[in-house]
Amino acid sequence: MRLKLIAASTLLSSAALLAACATTSSVPGVTSLVQGQAQVRSTPSVTVTRNGDTLTADYVFTRDAPVWAFMESALMTGSRQPWRPTQWTVETPGVVMERHGAYDIIRSRDGGPVPRHVRFTIRPKSVDLEAAYRTITFSDGAVALPTRQFDVFAVRSVAEAAATPADLNGVNVDGGPSPVTWRDASGPVLYKGERRANLTTTTDQSYVLMGQAAVTRGEGLTTVMDPSLPAWIGEEIRSFAPRVGDYYKRRLGPSGDGDEIPVVMVGWNGPTERMTSMAGSALSSLIVMRFEGVGVVQPSKQVLERSRWFIGHESAHFWLGQTVRYETARDMWITEGGADLMAVRALQVFDAGFDVRAELQNEVKDCADLTVNRGVADAGQRGEHRAYYACGAVFAMAAEGAQKKRTGGDWFDFLRGLIEANRADEVLTREEWLSALTRVSGDPTLRLDIEQLLDQGAANPSAVIARLFERTGVAFRMEDGKVVLI
Questions:
Q1: Taking a C-beta distance cutoff of 8 angstroms, is the pair 163, 101 a contact?
Q2: For residue 349, what are the CA distances in angstroms to 109, 346, 355?
Q3: What does 441-482 look like in DSSP terms, one character per residue?
Q4: What is the pTM of this model?
């Protein structure tokens, strides 16, 4: 659910990133973590306080444990290094923060229980993360923090933390959502578009803004934007986001947020030389964006087009990601690739000059490149998150082709049936998606090729994609062994 676009000089290229839980209203698996009494007793409380440029997080643990691990322990994109040690400093004597396996942990230096009270000083930075929501900083000193980055669980040893799988779906760990109390010396905090003098969050996956960023309420959209953000970006968001949202609603029915007015929160990292960068994520009734680089200071056809695609992708997650979400992190291709194709088809409606073929050709190329003898499902473990987007879009193109052959419809027609069938439980599983493809196409062998790319990859992924497209009617030709869309 998130896009990053970086350009050097006049070259514009894109690479998609995601958040393992960025497309869900609650972190997958967390619900199961709080069903037992032991998990509830072990959940600490946290107080986050902002006083000028200083932020602190004070943990009060409910029992003794030798190690506490942070559920949100993403790596930074590119370096693949943990972000928390670069922004959080342990102030409590005798406590150290380290990385073991997939988790940032804290432990007592002497091997005994972690003290019941632990304080961190936070110096927030807006950095791109793999499979996680990022902090958003504003040029006036305001900061927006994800509500669930404070969740922890207890483990019996460092070795146990190192052995805990990165995907906690179905794993019964001793912890869960932490109640977080938010305090800002400058005034009430902003939460879901409203100022709150007293706020405690627990299970909601959202953002809390601390600082005096301006809130602008418009028709169908509330915006919170960095005061230094280039003006054209704000104007484009205010005009295009409601239009694309209305289009999705017409094609797919109401989103899971119903009539709640969405909020768009936009940060600005400044006009960094030789860079054009856009990144973001979507949560319940909230889209979070961050722009950076000299390339977005002035509008251009390329940047305008990419910003619209970006808005279209993030808005798509109100339906494919919020109304229905994937079951496990291995299935991110359902929401990320599906949102990619939703954005492409929306821009095809709103922008006659948008190069649809070039956009989809990039999806085909990247999917083939990223599945040579390796599967999509475990791409996150390799740091190849782009595979979820690209191959998910390829599979969506095949489903769209099958829908067109059967009814003359498109991707939205295929998707609407899946959303309606799963509104009640809000989960769209891999099995449900593949079964729908079989029903629409009448060809049970299609899922076999998709499952091969999902689970093992192929020695020649282009040949597998070609078979999918040939049987579903997606127009292409083979050129030097590669699938080239027509």
A1: yes
A2: 60, 5, 12
A3: H--TTHHHHHHHHHHT-BSSHHHHHHHHHHHHT--EEEETTE
A4: 0.81
